[in-house]
Amino acid sequence: MEPESAVTTCYRHPKVETHVRCTRCDRYICPDCMREAAVGHQCVECVKEGARSIRQARTAFGGRIATAPVVTYVLIGLNVLAYLGELVRPAIVDRFAMLGAGLRGPDGGHYLWQYPYPPELHAEGVVGGQWERMLTGAFLHLPPTQGTFGILHIVMNMVSLWNVGRVVEAQLGRVRYITLYLLSALGGSVLVLLIAPGNPTIGASGAIFGLGAAYYVMARRLGADMSTVNRYMTGLLLWLLISAGLTSWQGHLGGLLAGGVVTLVFAYVPRGPRRGLIQAAACTGLLVLLVLLTVGKVTGLTS
Question: Coiled-coil regions in this chain (predicted)?
Answer without folding.
Answer: none
